[in-house]
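Predict the structure of Transposase.
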Amino acid sequence: MKHIDHDRLFKELIRTFFGEFMLLFFPAIHESIDYRHTTFLSEELYRDILEGEKNRVDLLIETKLKGEDGLIIVHIEPQS
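Done. Here is the predicted structure for Transposase.
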């Protein structure tokens, strides 16, 4: 049986439909995001200091709020 890379497919869906994803799951926040300033960042590696495990952030998005100068970071970590 062929293995389907669900993680990769999910990431591609979010990259393609980020605005729609935010509208569906976070409608109140969706209205505040300025989607013209959306950047998908590379996977980040971090270490759990207490456990010593290496982990990767699945999807990290940098964007702005409408009318604001600062940036916000959206972290999406899908679980099966």
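The radius of gyration is 15 Å.
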